[in-house]
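User: quick one, fold this
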Amino acid sequence: MVVGGAFGGNRGLRPVPPEKGIFPLDHLHECDLEKKEYISCLKTSGYHSEQCRIFSKKYLECRMERNLMAKQDMSELGFGGERRSEASESKDLRIENQASLPGDKTPAK
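Assistant:
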């Protein structure tokens, strides 16, 4: 007897809808430039998305402006903390400076 249906799936589990619901695809390629900039940034950065946040933000803004997704505050999408990244950069500089202080017994990397 076959368990799970004709295609091997478990028929007892209900599918979970996407968190943001459905949204139209960009059939008219209205945000292609922004999408290509973001993907290009990802490729050149070794797929470190943090370095490409500005392109991601531009892409989402483009989609919202053209009604390809629901308008939402950028801080709700994780873009409210640009100052936070500046703070982490200054923290990194302080750590580097402390590592290279004279009299420090730990070797600087």
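User: anything notable?
Assistant: The first helix runs from residue 32 to 44.
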